[in-house]
Design goal:
Distance between the termini: 44 Å
Domain Helicase C-terminal: 216-376
CATH class of the largest domain: Alpha Beta
Largest sheet: 7 strands, parallel
Low-confidence stretches: 443-453, 532-545, 547-585
Mean pLDDT: 81
Number of helices: 21
Number of domains: 3
CATH superfamily of the largest domain: P-loop containing nucleotide triphosphate hydrolases
Keywords: ATP-binding, Helicase, Hydrolase, Nucleotide-binding
Organism: Aquimarina algiphila
Enzyme class: hydrolase
Structural class: alpha/beta
Shape: elongated
Helix content: 25-40%
GO cellular component, one term: ribosome
CATH topology of the largest domain: Rossmann fold
CATH architecture of the largest domain: 3-Layer(aba) Sandwich
Radius of gyration: 27 Å
Length: 587
């Protein structure tokens, strides 16, 4: 029996669930669905992004509305166009076996006349953004005076965006005896206020702890000088060749600028913000879902419509103005049971904010360093080797092999390997060989000086494919080397290899222990990284790197000389969020 049946859902919903391949309800679904099906009550449900909140309120709503009546019975308010459309599409999938049930999306950027016509034909459920909904109410194009259910989805973000007055006005046109279901990732005081004002003794459901982050997401931060923020972003991307990420900026202006520079520097990137037309946003999201875009640069508001399970990294190019917003950002990765990484690029003056975020999400951040050029060269080289090892052989090449062998017959196997990899390696090695250290010196989170020359960095040929993440690899090294946690640092795990540091005094121990070490019959190789120490040297006016492995042109010319200077640190305070004119630049 499908586990959703035990929640009390009807045959039509169960059939749709089976069609979509759902088998096990998420925690928020297990807790919310039975209550909403069996009780006429208000509810406040706190759960992180990506935990299945849409189905948690969507299934019961479909069960409760009367599909034989054409009047609007359910209203769902969501903060953005993307999320509005996403919810609408999901509800249509859930209700495809319920004849006569219609869900209509109401949002800005599309014809208000067409939307009004759809509602007039009959819409039991309306999914709307607050601004467009208020507009339609003012024009008397929609009637919500008889709804039985009002759902506020992503309530905290709607209030962060300044929709409090709109929500007040919209709810004033709804009956007092309706049920209000409030779903939110965090519980700031504004959400508590609206719950007290518009809800009657609501049942509260909490998945995890209030305002906490997903357990599948690890959190890292990197301290750089403000002028090096963009260079650091490129380094982090280059150090993770398989990256599929969302990069968050505070404003539309920064979002567009960063995306344009990434594209100019040869990255598969695009911007997503409120100045794009709906058609442009749809095209960007389609390309991102199809993985034609590796780095989606977005504002917090626009990103609320991103529902992609395979995002590997979230990169906070700038910390958000509101600490709670970080929870929403990091929730874009680590979805559907997969692990993810949330990276934060901060200047020295912003390091104190990390502790504030830690208190809110109840998770610790690991301080890491921006990879050096040498480290990135190693990552790219071994990633290329891994890709070659996994490549399927195209036997159509067989007819060409005699001629190829004739051309290469004078070279040994070792020489051929060196020549093959040199074709790719030389380009980015030449680019990175003079790159400078981007890590800011002089302050860590406790305000102490950072020691740059007291450790040795190693390469080890095990990684994610061997079941390691940074924490389990660190534990493995502690056990094998009999060292304490303080003696191991900067553990960076890649797909098929990793890096780690120990105090310089342990160098002989590390090399001797791993000289003939085997793990499950496989030799584990440990070598000292060529860039084991950070080189200071003369500070050059370069951008610190930016080679992308997909670039194949022989006339490769690295770009990326553009800088933003101190503009990266410009942000807005809480009051600016409430100002409609200034708020528009967040979208």
């Amino acid at each position: 029996m499908n586990k959703f049946e035990a929640l009390g859902l009807g045959e039509a919903i169960i059939k749709a669930v089976n069609d979509m391949g759902f088998e096990t309800p998420s925690e928020v679904q297990e807790k919310a669905i039975p209550i909403l099906l069996n009780e006429d009550t208000d509810i406040v449900a706190l759960a992180q992004t990506g935990t299945g909140k849409t189905a948690a309120f969507g299934f019961p709503l479909i069960e409760k509305v009367d599909n034989k009546s054409r009047i609007t019975q359910g209203l769902i308010l969501s903060p953005t166009r993307e999320l509005c459309l996403q919810i609408t599409n999901e509800l249509k999938n859930y209700s495809k076996h319920v004849p006569g049930l219609h869900t209509v999306a109401i949002y800005g950027g599309a014809s208000i006349t067409d939307q009004a016509k759809q509602i007039k034909r009959g819409a039991q459920i309306i999914v709307a953004t607050p601004g467009r909904m208020q507009d339609m109410i003012n024009r008397k194009l929609v009637d919500i005076s008889n709804i039985g259910y009002c759902i506020l989805d992503e309530a905290d973000e709607m209030l962060n965006m300044g929709f409090y007055e709109d929500i007040n006005a919209i709810l004033s046109h709804t009956p007092k005896d309706k049920n209000t279901w409030l779903f939110s990732a965090t519980m700031p005081k504004e959400v508590s206020t609206i719950a007290k004002r518009f809800m009657s003794t609501p049942i509260e459901i909490t998945v995890g702890h209030k305002n906490t982050g997903s357990k599948n997401v690890s959190h890292e931060y990197y301290v750089v000088n403000s002028r090096d923020r963009y260079a650091a972003l490129k380094r982090l991307s280059d150090a993770n060749p398989d990256i599929f990420s969302v990069v968050f900026c505070r404003t539309k202006r920064d979002t567009q600028k960063v995306a344009e520079n990434l594209i100019e520097d040869g990255y598969n990137a695009a911007a997503l913000h409120g100045d794009l037309s709906q058609n442009q946003r749809d095209l960007v999201m389609k390309s991102f879902r199809n993985r034609q875009i590796q780095m989606l640069v977005a504002t917090d508001v626009a990103a609320r419509g991103i529902d992609v399970d395979d995002v590997t990294h979230v990169i906070n190019y700038q910390l958000p103005d509101e600490i709670e917003t970080y929870t929403h950002r990091s929730g874009r990765t680590g979805r559907a049971g997969k692990s993810g990484v949330s990276m934060v690029i901060v200047s020295k003056s912003e390091v104190r904010k990390i502790k504030s975020v830690e208190r809110i999400i109840k998770k610790n951040f690991e301080k890491k360093e921006i990879p050096s050029g040498e480290e990135i060269c190693q990552v790219q080289l071994f990633h290329l080797a891994s890709d070659i090892g996994k490549a399927e052989i195209n036997h159509e090449i067989d007819s060409y092999l005699p001629s190829i062998n004739e051309v290469l017959e004078e070279f040994s196997k070792e020489e051929l390997i060196k020549k093959f990899f040199s074709v790719e390696f030389s380009r980015f090695h030449n680019y990175y060989k003079k790159s400078r250290d981007l890590n800011a010196i002089g302050s860590d989170r406790e305000g102490n000086s950072r020691n740059n020359d007291g450790s040795t960095r190693y390469f080890i040929n095990v990684g994610e494919k061997d079941g390691f993440d940074w924490m389990t690899l660190k534990d493995f090294l502690k056990d094998v080397l009999s060292l304490g946690s303080d003696s191991l640092s900067r553990v960076d795990v890649k797909e098929s290899f990793s890096f780690f540091n120990t105090n310089a005094e342990h160098q002989e121990l590390v090399l001797s222990v791993f000289e003939n070490f085997k793990m499950e019959g496989r030799k584990v190789n440990v070598e000292i990284s060529k860039d084991s120490g950070r080189r200071g040297g003369r500070r050059r006016r370069d951008d610190g790197g930016g080679y992308k492995g997909k670039r194949r042109s022989n006339d490769f010319k690295p770009k990326g000389k553009k800088r933003f200077g101190s503009n990266e640190d410009r942000g807005s305070g809480g009051n600016q969020r409430r100002d409609r004119r200034k708020r528009s630049d967040r979208r």
